[in-house]
Structure formats: structure tokens, C-alpha cells
Design brief:
heterodimer; A: about 500 residues; mainly alpha; two-stranded antiparallel sheet; 22 helices; 2 strands; B: about 170 residues; 2 domains
Chain lengths: ~500, ~170
């Protein structure tokens, strides 16, 4: 009941034309970005983040959450029409959607994707609203030991699950942690690894780092796509509308998939792609028409889209209550929260900050409503997005990266950081190192260090004593160690197998 | 494809395991440097050195983790090379990747002396050409429109101190 009251208060707090305009603009841009192959919701949130520096927190987050929700849905448009998922989380949608388009049922597929995305998004927002306060109340019991192991857990789980190679994921995380060490030490304020320069005392700031990791590195890699032109067979939006009966026939799978998405979203390190495929596989197992999967099944589209949009709200549960981002896009949102002066954690749900948080929850629901309206009315327009030439899009994204980075602090230093980290991100992408753990390491590094040092100082330098009488910390630490050993064992087995 | 893109159509191909090996050695060398020279010369212990916990403690943990992980990557890469798998993936480094980086570096280098509007138009026009654009007019027009909109938003509306360089007297 309290959660419902909080949500109503959130609606009242965000009932402002500015908030709604920003949410609508964000959703619109998000759908366009999602529909563009090569650009993801993460890239979208990253390149438009600097526009929010001077906004109030609620409209700023309405804008960013709109890009996130719209971007997650937008990927399905190109997946269905050109068999190229705009985002990785729409890959499962492409399997069924494109087959339907080829049969002249593109409109039906697109409408199912839209309604399933909406339903998944709404259920995810409600989960966020109802579960977050409970998690936050639980997190109030946490001390330095819990926060330290949670940080380590967050970084290592994302590093080991973000890619097929745990070593590479963890190396990426150490890059982030190394970047976090540069600058002034969080306890004493002593300069570290500044090599005698004053500007480096600022450290590696979040904005240039995340723009470099998610946009500049990607742009450098995409430059070579000009030598591999792809002839896309674009299907027309035609056929019959989705009937109410067809929608209702799939309600069960949409609800199940939405909850799968919520569950997966709440686990750090997974994300929309995993949720979409898990939901798709579940739908296939539950279906009475298993043979229809792969040949253009509405059920498959419903499951995949409800699953990937089911992640959007749920990924914010660990982000807002514990300060642990669930995936790359929430890692960017964590940076955005900090820029707005909001420190993620249980205290965010108390006092004045609580109003802002519930306002953001309400706007997230509104973003989903905007997504439904825009998707319904603007489908032909969004489908045209694929016609935007590469030579126009690339310079615009690059321009946004540059001005956004400079606007972060109006210093040339940030642009230099962008250049260096951008080159690093390019090499990381080339050798298949994930960039999300690096950002997590950079963002969570100072927190992990501060809690570790505080915990150690309180226990006279005895690391193990930090865990005395802390069952939650021990449980998280044990889970982290088991998960790392399990992943490492699998990797060693894979490395040795062919030789045997 | 325009002439510039055609001229830049050069690339180097390396095996995934070779790239991993090179990357692993690079990470190992950087972490060894940071662990030795970095920790001793560029990080001071700080004021709160109680119970042996100093400003160096956390960096040391990170660098040791980096050394261990880079050794693991090197071992994995060597194991992969030993297998000599003909289906092993290849990594291609194109000259155009470097050209995009240099375009960005040029923007950073000239931003203060010439100012944002000119630097941005130059950077975006070059980027337009590197992305396969063929019309000078279209490229410059697109760059100009973007620059005008961003100057209006960041400089005029948000009052950010964007360097105007050569145009500072005019704008």
C-alpha cells in the first residue's frame, strides 16, 4: 500500500510539462537510436547525457529513461523490417519478425512487438516501484564490509558474464579500477599517478570515460564498415493489423516473459539480450505450436520483446538501492545520478531524495506510455530511419561526443581523456574485451576502495575481522568466489579440451 | 566510396591469439610499471598510514590483479596458438580507424587556438569524407548546421564557456 502511495506521490511530483516534454523527447530519440543498426540504447544515453547536466534531476532522468525504454523497443523495428537488430536485445525478435515480414505480415509483427514491449516495460516499472523500497530497507543494515563485497560482486559478475571470456572481462574491470586510482586519493586527498601534472589530479572523470568507452571506440570501429557494404532487403510495412483476439491469445507468455525480464534485469551482468533469449526459449517450451518457431511466430516476438523491455525498470533495482548497475546502460545512468548529486543507495529512498526517485519511477511509466503512442502513430517515420546515410550519422554522433565531453567541465583536459580512453576502447573492442566492466570499475572503484579502507581501519588492518558477525557480507563474498571459480573452471576446461 | 576512403583502404590482419598475446604482454608491462615505478614514485603513502593501510594499498591490489590476469591471458593466447586452429578468428586493423582517431586528435589540438565553431566544422567535414560522403557542399552544410545548433544550445542558451577562438570578436 505504501509503495502505491509513493508512486501516486511520484506522479504528482513529476506532473510538470517540462518533465513530460523531456520524457517524450527522450522516448522519441530513443526509438530512432534503437532503430539505427549499430547504435544501442547505451550509446544513445551516453551521447545525450551531457544535455542533462543543467536540467533538474526528474526531467533529466525522464529524458534518459525515455532514451533507454525507446531504444530497447526501437531495435525491434529494424529487426522485423530488415533482419538487422538495431540493438543486441532485439536479436531474438529478428528470428520471427523478419520471417513474418517476408510473409507480408510486417504490420502485425511490429504491433505485437510494440504491445509486448509496452507490457514488459510497465510490469518492470511496477516491480521497480514495489521491490526497491524493500531492498532499500534491507540495505540499511549494510556496513563497509557489505558495501565493499557488493562492489566487488558487481564488478566481477559483470566482468565474468559480459563476455564469453572471464579473463578478458576482469582485465577490462582492472582498466576501470586503474583509471579510478588516478587523481586524488578518496581518503587523504593525496595525488596518485598524476606524474607531476596538475590537470591529472582531476582523475579520469566519468563523462569523457563513458563517452569514449561506449561511443568513440565504437565510432572508430564502425569506420571500417564502409569497406563491407551490406545490401539490406527492406520489407514494407504491410498486412493486417494485430487483432485484439491475437493479442489476448498471447497474454500468458507476455506476462511470464515480462517477469523473466524483471528477474534477469535485477541480476547484475545480464541485460536485455539474455532476457530476450531466455523468454524466447521459455515461450518455445510452453507453446502448443512449437513447430511455428523460426518460421514467423507471433508468440516468439511477444516473448522476446516483453522479455527485453521487462529488463528496463528492473535493472534499476540494484542500481538505485545498492549502487550496483545491472548492465552497461545502468552504469551510464549511475554516472548520471552522481552528476545530479544523487548518491545511489538506501538513503536515496528517504527524505527529499525519495520524492525525486518516485518522480523518476512515475516518469518511467510515462515513458512507456509515450513509447506505445509514438510506436502506434509514428511507425512509418521510424521505419524510414534506416535510410539515414552513414556519412551523415557518423559525423553527427562524433560531434555530439565532442561537444558533450567538453560541456562536462569546459576544460580541454576532458577532451584529452576522451582521446586516450577512446583509443583504449577501440583496442578493447578489437581484441573483444567488453567495455562495460571498465566503466563499472571506474565508477565503483572509489566506493570499493573507500569502504575497504574504512573497514580495515575500523578492524585495525585485519581484513578477515571485517567479516566477523556480518553474515550478509559473507554470503555475498561466498557467492562471488563460487561464481568466479565456476566461470574460471569452465574457461580452463575449454582452453585445454581440444588438446586432450 | 570517395577517393579518400579508397586511398585509406589498407589493413593489417592478425590472428585473434596473436592479438590477445600482444594485448596481454602490453597489459603486463603497464601493470609491472605501475606496480614498481608507479607505486614507489608516483603514489605517496598519505597521512593515514595506520595499521599499514595507506593510499598505496588499493592500487597495489589492482595492479597485482592486473598482472595475474594478463599472465592468464598470455597463457590462454599461447594455448590457442599451439592448437593452430585454421578456423581461428582474425582481427583486422584498418587505416581508416587511425584516420578517424587523427581527425578527433586534430579537433582537440585546434579547439583552443581556432575555436569550437571552426574546429567542429573541420572535424565533422573530415568525418563526413571518412564515412564515404561525396559532396563537399553537403558535408560542410551538415557540419555548419550542427555547429550552429550546438553553439545556440550550449553557448547562447546554457551560457557555457565554449572557446570561440578566431570568431571570439564576432560571436
Amino acid at each position: 500500500m505504501q509503495a502505491l502511495q509513493n508512486l501516486i506521490q511520484g506522479f504528482a511530483f513529476s506532473a510538470d510539462i517540462n518533465c513530460y516534454l523531456m520524457a517524450a523527447l527522450g522516448t522519441f530519440l530513443g526509438i530512432i537510436i534503437g532503430a539505427l543498426p549499430g547504435l544501442t540504447a547505451t550509446t544513445g544515453v551516453t551521447i545525450f547525457l551531457p544535455m542533462t547536466f543543467y536540467m533538474q534531476p526528474v526531467p533529466a532522468f525522464g529524458f534518459l529513461c525515455g532514451i533507454y525504454c525507446g531504444g530497447t523497443y526501437g531495435g525491434s523495428i529494424t529487426a522485423i523490417l530488415i533482419n538487422t537488430p538495431g540493438t543486441p536485445s532485439a536479436a531474438a525478435t529478428a528470428i520471427e519478425g523478419y520471417e513474418m515480414s517476408r510473409k507480408g505480415q510486417a504490420l502485425k509483427a511490429l504491433e505485437m512487438a510494440l504491445y509486448a514491449s509496452f507490457l514488459g516495460g510497465i510490469i518492470s516499472c511496477l516491480c521497480l516501484n514495489f521491490i526497491s523500497p524493500i531492498m532499500a530497507a534491507f540495505a540499511m543494515k549494510f556496513g563497509p564490509a557489505e558495501y565493499f563485497v557488493l562492489g566487488v560482486f558487481g564488478i566481477s559478475i559483470v566482468a565474468s558474464l559480459a563476455t564469453g571470456n572471464m579473463t578478458k572481462g576482469l582485465i577490462a574491470a582492472t582498466f576501470g579500477l586503474t583509471m579510478a586510482v588516478i587523481g586524488l586519493d578518496p581518503i587523504d586527498g593525496m595525488p596518485r599517478l598524476t606524474f607531476g601534472t596538475i590537470s591529472m589530479q582531476n582523475g579520469i572523470t566519468t563523462i569523457p570515460a563513458l563517452i569514449s568507452l561506449f561511443a568513440v571506440g565504437e565510432l572508430m570501429c564502425q569506420g571500417e564498415s564502409i569497406y563491407k557494404p551490406v545490401d539490406l532487403e527492406v520489407q514494407a510495412i504491410k498486412g493486417q493489423h494485430l487483432s485484439f483476439k491475437e493479442f489476448i491469445q498471447h497474454w500468458k507468455i507476455m506476462i511470464v516473459s515480462s517477469f523473466i525480464g524483471c528477474f534477469i534485469g535485477a541480476v547484475p551482468g545480464t541485460g536485455g539480450g539474455v532476457a530476450a533469449f531466455c523468454s524466447y526459449n521459455t515461450a518455445q517450451k510452453m507453446s502448443k505450436e512449437k513447430e511455428a518457431f523460426g518460421t514467423g511466430s507471433l508468440e516468439g516476438i511477444a516473448a522476446s520483446e516483453a522479455g527485453n523491455n521487462g529488463v528496463t525498470g528492473a535493472t534499476m533495482i540494484p542500481l538505485l538501492t545498492l549502487g550496483i548497475p545491472g548492465d552497461a546502460v545502468t552504469a551510464v545512468l549511475l554516472g548520471a545520478l552522481m552528476i545530479q548529486g544523487l548518491t545511489p543507495g538506501p538513503l536515496l529512498f528517504q527524505g527529499e531524495d525519495a520524492k525525486t526517485i518516485y518522480g523518476i519511477f512515475a516518469l518511467l511509466i510515462i515513458c512507456n506510455i509515450f513509447m506505445l503512442l509514438m510506436g502506434k502513430l509514428g511507425l512509418p517515420l521510424f521505419a524510414k530511419v534506416t535510410d539515414i546515410p552513414h556519412e551523415i550519422l557518423q559525423p553527427i554522433v562524433m560531434g555530439l561526443c565532442c561537444i558533450g565531453t567538453y560541456a562536462a567541465a569546459t576544460r580541454i583536459y576532458e577532451l584529452r581523456v576522451m582521446l586516450v580512453v577512446g583509443a583504449l576502447a577501440f583496442f578493447m573492442k578489437k581484441v573483444k574485451l567488453p567495455t562495460a566492466p571498465a566503466l563499472l570499475g571506474l565508477i565503483l572503484g572509489p566506493t570499493v576502495e573507500a569502504y575497504l579502507r574504512r573497514g580495515l581501519l575500523a578492524k585495525r588492518g585485519n581484513f578477515w575481522a571485517m567479516f566477523n558477525g556480518r553474515p550478509i557480507a559473507i554470503t555475498i563474498a561466498v557467492v562471488t568466489i563460487i561464481m568466479l571459480i565456476y566461470t574460471a573452471y569452465g574457461e580452463i576446461k575449454n582452453t585445454k579440451r581440444p588438446e586432450e | 566510396m570517395n577517393k579518400l576512403v579508397k586511398a585509406l583502404d589498407k589493413h593489417v590482419e592478425v590472428r585473434q591469439s596473436t592479438a590477445d598475446l600482444g594485448f596481454g604482454i602490453g597489459v603486463l608491462l603497464v601493470d609491472l610499471f605501475l606496480m614498481t615505478v608507479g607505486v614507489t614514485k608516483h603514489i605517496s603513502a598519505g597521512y593515514t598510514t595506520t595499521y599499514g593501510i595507506t593510499a598505496k594499498t588499493f592500487p597495489k591490489v589492482v595492479f597485482i590483479a592486473g598482472i595475474v590476469l594478463s599472465l592468464m591471458l598470455i597463457w590462454q593466447a599461447l594455448a590457442k596458438r599451439k592448437k593452430n586452429d585454421p578456423n581461428e578468428g582474425k582481427i583486422v586493423f584498418h587505416l581508416i580507424n587511425l584516420a578517424i582517431f587523427l581527425d578527433l586528435a586534430l579537433f582537440v589540438a585546434i579547439l583552443i587556438p581556432v575555436g569550437y565553431p571552426i574546429a567542429n566544422v573541420i572535424m565533422m567535414t573530415i568525418m563526413y569524407w571518412l564515412s564515404g560522403g561525396k559532396s563537399w557542399v553537403k558535408g560542410i552544410l551538415m557540419s555548419l548546421i550542427f555547429t550552429v545548433v550546438s553553439v545556440l544550445f550550449f553557448y547562447t542558451y546554457l551560457k557555457l564557456a565554449i572557446p570561440m577562438g578566431l570568431l571570439s570578436g564576432i560571436l
